[in-house]
Amino acid sequence: MTADTPFLKVRTGAGADYYQAEAAGLRWLAASGTCSVPVVRSVSAANLVIDRVPVGASTPAAGRRFGAQLARLHQAGAPAFGSAPPDAPERGWIADLPMNYGDFTTFGPMYAQLRVLPYVRLARAAGQLSGPDCGPFEELAEALADDEPGLVGPPEAASRLHGDLWSGNLIWAADRIGQPTAWLIDPAAHGGHRETDLAMLALFGAPQLAEIMAGYQAEAPLSEGWQARRGLHQVYPLLVHTVLFGGGYAASARSAAVRALRALH
């Protein structure tokens, strides 16, 4: 159960509408009635006030329970690939970077136009990628535009995504009825492919990941070949990290794009 003391969030570098986008995402996730999400108490251009979640321990039971809840969150759906949460501002944010919304009927074109190419351009502008580095990303975007089945897998409906699902955005604690689980915070919520959330958990590592996946698979089994598609879905968060931090993330993002493209050859 959440404590009575609220949590005040003030983030250095937060852009215009940053907190409005986060609050809209939290409310959209909570509206699914699936995962545990802190209640938004107030939001302004300067800060966000939410319920405080007492930090607990990750356990196998909590991981399995959260995996099933995450599957149900994804099944709650979204109007389109790239769609924004209700009442969201014109654009969202992931960390300190803008994140555009859109309205796509399939995953591939959305991922190319909203999640790959924009961050390649930002990485080039920041001096983290050179022209020759961009070839695999451009080839990947072309294949995504065609929704190549060997690349993106079988067609799926748009899922309701957390959108920035790394372990730091999970708080392990009991839910409101005392059951062990993980709470979702700091979303970059949008309509997308459910494998994107799962690939981000795997990319940066999450406590109880095997149990999370077991709980997820029991609730909503993934399409065959999902393990091979992890690299595709990890291109986006790796590009975001390339823009923000540089270093080895550029090479990792390029390697993930190359691995994804191997499915076509």
How does this model look, in words?
It is a single chain. The chain is built from nine helices and nine strands. It has 265 residues and is an alpha+beta fold. It has a single domain, classed as Alpha-Beta Complex (Aminoglycoside 3'-phosphotransferase, Chain: A, domain 2), CATH 3.90.1200.10. The strands form four sheets. Strands 1-3-2 form a three-stranded antiparallel beta sheet, with helices on one face. A hairpin with a 2-residue loop joins strand 4 and strand 5 (97-99). Helix 2 crosses helix 7 and helix 4 packs across helix 9 (249-261). It is globular, with a radius of gyration of 18 Å. The mean pLDDT is 95.
